[in-house]
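Whether sequence alone determines local backbone shape is best considered at the level of individual chains. The sequence in question and its structure tokens are set out directly beneath this paragraph.

===
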Amino acid sequence: MQFAQINQKQNPSFKNGFYNTTRELDSSVVLSRALVDGCGATIPWIIMANNSTERKEKARRLLFDYAIAYMSPFLTLPFTNRLFTRHLVKLTKSLWSNNHKAIHISNAYLKDTESMMKELYRMSKKTTRGPIEALYNKLNPSKKYEQKINVKELLEACGGDKEKLRQKLIKAKNAVFISDCIFTFGILGSVPFINNEITKKQSGQSGFSAEMSMADKDIVENRAQDYEKTKRKRYLTFLGIFGSITLAMSLMGFASIYPKSRACGKFVNMFRDRARYFDYTKGIYMSRLPFFLGYLSDMIAVLLASRNKTERKDQAIRQGVGSAVFFGGDLLLGSLFTNISDRVFGTKLRRDTGSNKSLMDKIFPKVKPLRQVMEEVEQGKIPKINKQASAGIFWANMLILMVSLGFAIPTVINKMIKKDVEEDVHSRSQNLGLTNSPYNKPLKIEEFIEGKIQ
């Protein structure tokens, strides 16, 4: 018993592993989206696919999505953060320097040098050690690795000019943002087009994979004729849209460069005041707004890569409802559950927005993130039940999203696909002079394939 208590004391994560994991998921839109997409969407969608070809297609999509969108923060961003602070703006002396973490500063503090310096000095008091620092220590055990940000060295790299340091940090942050958008959303938007070509090569058919078990090859391919003729143009259209969205988002980030003034105009000042929405948590987790905007370009790519109108409806429902449920549903459910918890159980999970509350704030109150709730519990400001309720609300929220996305949507869509193909088969049977058919209702797919209509 004593041994277990000692281990828990030495390793707090042993006791709080569930809460720490939940806190990380709650604080990252990328990780929580990965959870919903994987467990609540893609995997059930693979299981409920209409045939093996569609199942393989969806499995490849899952592999691409996770390899690129959800693994890139852990593989590419830690490197690009160091690369740009070292070689683009020359703020660090080597890739191993911990001063690259100055790039983690929020855009909210880059509006002027005074705010920037205060935040950098605050950050410099924290000692953090990530996987790259641990690797460096392992490879160089005799060398002492400085884990804190050295503000003095950062200023020396700019000749003591604080304004120059501010400009360099903004430049580095935006370079990371643009490269991340190009790598993540550019490749993700290309996946549907690549996936179509792989399916075509493996199956020998160019149509919508879900229909390949519903009608013969000629019908499936005929329904995809328009896509085959215009697929190159469609891909170029996606690149144009994606490039425009990325450029617009990068300009929003650069808006923090300009001092707030009438000369900038209300439009620029509006973006400047909201530049914090383009921050990265821990320098690797993209925030909700840019992730949504980037994901929007990928939704457009999926629609452009649709091989016929049925697949377009399929993807519009999956992507549209999926994104609406994730980006809005979790906020709605979180506010609802928090309101109930605070009123019924006396928890304090709502954010204090002051006396000037809007009608929306009263109906859907803003919720404290689990990270803040855990800190307040540790500081003794609120009882432990708040941490338990906050974590419970998060998982209840995720479970509802996963069930609704994973099983309700594909059930509806599969029925829609079958109905569309049956109507097309019936239309073709009439065009072939089969209007005298004893069937006075839409021809069933099974009957068409079995050749019951002569």
